[in-house]
Each structure stands twice: as C-alpha cells, then as structure tokens.
Amino acid sequence: MLSAPVVHAADEAPDALIKRLSADVLDKIKADKTVQAGDMTRVMALVDSQIMPNVNFVRMTAAAVGPSWRQATPDQKKRLQDEFKTLLIRTYSGALSQVSEQTIDVKPLREAAGATEVVVRTEVLGRGAPAQLDYRLEKVGTSWKIYDLNVVGVWLVAAYRTQFAQEINARGIDGLIVSLSERNKSNNASNAKKS
C-alpha cells in the first residue's frame, strides 16, 4: 500500500501531480481542525509529509545559494539543505495555515514533447482576487520534482538567491548557515509563543 503513491507518481504528468498534491493538501487542511486552528506543528508535518517528497532540494538549494554552492564542502551543502528545507517548510506552512475555503485552478500545460522541465501555472481561488502560484518542475528519472515556486509574481529561488548572496559576501558560506539556523530558531520561538 505504501508503494502505490510512488508508482502512481512515476506515471503522472506534471500538471496532474500539482493538481493531485494541491487537492490532497487542501482536503487534509479542511479535514483537520488543529491545522485550521493554526497549529504550526501539524501544518509543518503536513507540508513535510505531503509536499516535500515532491521537491528537488539539492537543485533548489544550489540555485538559491548560487555560484558559491560549487565551493561549499559536502558538510556545508548538507547543512545548507537542512536549514533551507526548514525555512521553506515554515514559509509554505505559514501560507497554508491561512487556507480555509480556497481551491486551486491548474491551468492547461504547455509542454513540448519530451520536455524535461516545465512550468505548471495555477491560481488560488477563494476570498478576494485569485493569487498566482506557479511551479517549476523537472523530470528526475520517471517522476516530476518541484524546484521553484512563483508566489504572486516572485520566484522563490531568485528572491532567496539575492538574500543569500548578500550574506555570503558579508560572512561566507558558514555565515549563511548560521544566519539560516538563527532565523529558523527565531521562527520556532515565535511559533512556540503562539501555541
């Protein structure tokens, strides 16, 4: 039974993957009163279990770190990935904790035959104006993996690349790792006070 989603995902088109993931996550949010109440521990667990297995963190982290990634040691790369993953889970969880009756409209995919990278465009519909949420995906083996998000016109990796470059220029790779770690600890403390 546990292998069923993996087999299903391997045959899945990128737009179908985003549609399924979105529907699954929204259904789980709507069914879980603790998530709806803003329990960040539960929201983060949902994001980590449902969304993160479909993300290529190596590519996403390398792109966000930029050229300095090539000079980073294997240990630094691992620590950067761990801290960046925590930051992304928190960012995504914060957005999901605001979800109530939203739905996702997945736009028709414009994919060239044999494409190994695509953009799946979606709109979040609910209260207020529709919000743009697009995904860049790449084919990894037989599965599609997300490696960037566009939230209301801002590509996440590019936004972080600018921030990370400033930190690397000022304090180096280790400085960036420390900065991400401190930011994640600060976010943990803020969420603990809200509980």
Relevant terms:
Nuclear Transport Factor 2, Chain: A, 5-stranded antiparallel beta sheet, 195 residues, alpha+beta, disordered N terminus, 7 helices
Structure description:
Helix 2 (14-31) packs antiparallel against helix 4 and helix 5 crosses helix 7. The protein has a five-stranded antiparallel sheet. It is globular. A hairpin with a 2-residue loop joins strand 3 (131-140) and strand 4 (143-151). The model is unreliable at 1-8 (pLDDT under 50). The protein has a single domain (4-194), classed as Tgt2/MlaC (Nuclear Transport Factor 2, Chain: A, Roll). Helices cover 57% and strands 17% of the residues. The protein has 195 residues and is α+β, with helices and mostly antiparallel strands.
Question: Gist?
Answer:
The chain has 7 helices and 5 strands; from the N terminus they run ααααααβββββα. It has helices spanning 4-10, 14-31, 33-36, 40-50, 57-65, 74-96, 156-194, and strands spanning 103-106, 117-125, 131-140, 143-151, 154-155.
Write the layout of secondary structure elements.
Blueprint: H1 4-10, H2 14-31, H3 33-36, H4 40-50, H5 57-65, H6 74-96, E1 103-106, E2 117-125, E3 131-140, E4 143-151, E5 154-155, H7 156-194
Antiparallel strand pairs: 1-2, 2-3, 3-4, 4-5
Helix pairs in contact: 2-4, 4-6, 5-6, 5-7, 6-7
Largest sheet: 5 strands, antiparallel
Uncertain segments of ≥5 residues (pLDDT<50)? 1-8
**Topology pattern, helix = H, strand = E:** HHHHHHEEEEEH
What is the CATH level 1 assignment? Alpha Beta
CATH superfamily: Tgt2/MlaC
- Side by side, the strands of the main sheet go 1-2-3-4-5
Share of β-strand residues: 15-25%
Number of helices: 7
Global geometry = globular
Structural class by SSE content: alpha+beta
